[in-house]
């Protein structure tokens, strides 16, 4: 997959079928758009492309929520798995924020992206003061020179699937619903770092990753999880939080005990998929009490996974 980022100075020579949006989470609604893009690209002999933004700087637009379901790297990996030929991560600048909607369609979508077909959801907005919308794209398509496809929203349990829906469920730890909306397990990716080493003293060695501040996490607590290490899958239990029994730092970590794993993966990239919320994080009186609870957590997860 071609990945264009950190620049507005580019032009795609190949004709594209492109979808436009933020794509935070790349949930089932987004996947519906991407599927249509791939289908149309195949019909037209064009490149399947997705156009999105780097995260919006607070200095330009102070949003009430600057946390995201996935990092840019996680979004890129999912886009590639879903078969996109090109992912454009356009820098969000002051000039872009104040660009008129018609100019965005002519100068960015048609000239830079070389769009022969544009696929958007019914709620897509763009341009200065969000004056552009899906209706404008459909109305101007013939004049500018591309086909417009406006796609109805997908629904789950009588609610439109959206990134907001995913965030709402994630914040309360409803992992089964989150994973249903995403069409895949919610995950945290990162490089394994050294932790407190307390797990080794209990013969329960763990791996630790530290997600970036902008990554939206579920509530602090213990989760039944699946971790991908060098393409191999390991069941386990994961603690999301500050580990109050063994440390006083406020830095949140994602610490996982992998069943049947004893290798050294420090410095390696792993993906931790959270499947089920088991219990909130808590502070225990001592290490023995913590060890006893971890044994119970492990037993619960193994029963859940039927192993």
Verbal overview:
This protein is an alpha/beta fold and 307 residues long. It folds into two domains: 2-159, 3-Layer(aba) Sandwich (Rossmann fold), CATH 3.40.50.620; 185-304, Beta Barrel (Elongation Factor Tu (Ef-tu), domain 3), CATH 2.40.30. Helix content is 30%, strand content 28%. The protein has helices at residues 28-44, 72-81, 94-97, 101-112, 134-144, 163-171, 175-182, 198-201, 287-304; strands at residues 2-5, 16-20, 47-53, 86-90, 115-121, 125-126, 132-133, 147-151, 155-156, 159-160, 187-191, 207-209, 221-229, 232-241, 253-258, 269-280. Strands 1-4-3-2-5-8 form a six-stranded parallel sheet, sandwiched between helices. A six-stranded antiparallel sheet has the order 11-16-13-14-15-12. A hairpin with a 2-residue loop joins strand 9 and strand 10 (159-160). The chain starts with a strand and ends with a helix.
Which features does this protein show?
six-stranded antiparallel β-sheet, Elongation Factor Tu (Ef-tu), domain 3, 30% helix, six-stranded parallel β-sheet, Rossmann fold, elongated, 2 domains, 307 residues, alpha/beta, 9 helices
